[in-house]
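$ run holo --ligand "flavin-adenine dinucleotide" --emit tokens
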Amino acid sequence: MKTELLQFQEVLQDVSLKPYNTLHIGGVCKYMVFPHTCEELQQLLLTIQENHLKYFILGNGSNVILSDEYYDGVVILLSHFDQIVYEGNQVHVGAGVLMPKFSMDVVSKGYSGFEWAVGIPGTIGGCIVGNAEAYKESTFDYLVDVTVLYQGTIQVMKKEELSYAYRTSFFKEHPGYVILEATFQLSKGNYEESMEIIKKRKEKRMNTQPLEFPSAGSVFRNPLNADPSGKLIEDIGLKGTSIGGAQVSQKHANFIINTGNATSNDVRNLIELVHDEVKKHYGIDLEMEQEYVGWD
Ligand SMILES: Cc1cc2nc3c(=O)[nH]c(=O)nc-3n(C[C@H](O)[C@H](O)[C@H](O)COP(=O)(O)OP(=O)(O)OC[C@H]3O[C@@H](n4cnc5c(N)ncnc54)[C@H](O)[C@@H]3O)c2cc1C
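-- output --
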């Protein structure tokens, strides 16, 4: 191990990435670091820069397609950035907190706002980057500000300074920013009513999404002025199409599932096949929602 990286409290070497993403694919990374504080993260990024190492911030890995290739760099996980602090009708939440946990915490404290998000298996950081949304509500709808680390400096960015749209945000276009914490606006809630909404949302997902298999959620964004991607894919008979262990879900055609032993190449080849078939049949160039990571 590079001695420079030994100074950090929690460093692993030669780690399989499979358990760290919801599709359960991917190769081995050289280093995985779990910083405990902002200062440690600052120092880590400086060390990475000085040693010309590659790095990547991984949330819960629920929107990425990781390569099977060896990742000769540092994967950083912010799972220790896990604080949730309420202040009036606002809440400050660490980037590493999982959205389902946050959503339930908000309800349990008597607030309302994030019932829609209970089934999104991402971290707060990942949900801000991709402006995660469901049932016509999105992460940015409730955002007040984001605390980031950028070029060695911690700064607070107000929502007004940040561009965002359907499943995207300023941060998707500017990967140099590391999200540390976010502040969200809540309203006073009613526990029973919120739990009823959550129950319905969970049931709907169970019935419409292949939650029994590893996946990374919807593969493609829904195109403008056309049917949703899932319907386009289903209507040309691609449900159930497989390459190796990757399969277009029978339950929801915009999900590609890992039936057990999918490689990253299986998943990527299947994504490309679906994309090309949709293009051939409808002339629509579907855009990926998921992100390829580690494919040089
Ligand atoms: C079963 C299932 C259902 C889903 N349903 C939905 C849904 O309803 N709506 C929806 O919008 N999405 C959905 N998704 C997709 C996914 O959960 C979201 O996109 C989520 O926001 C991704 O968060 P993550 O922590 O997993 O991010 P990752 O996949 O780990 O990372 C995504 C991107 O964010 C970056 N990133 C992560 N954390 C930080 C940080 N702290 N600072 C800077 N960059 C960071 C990464 O570098 C990467 O570029 C679903 C996924 C699954 C598997």
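-- notes --
The radius of gyration is 20 Å.
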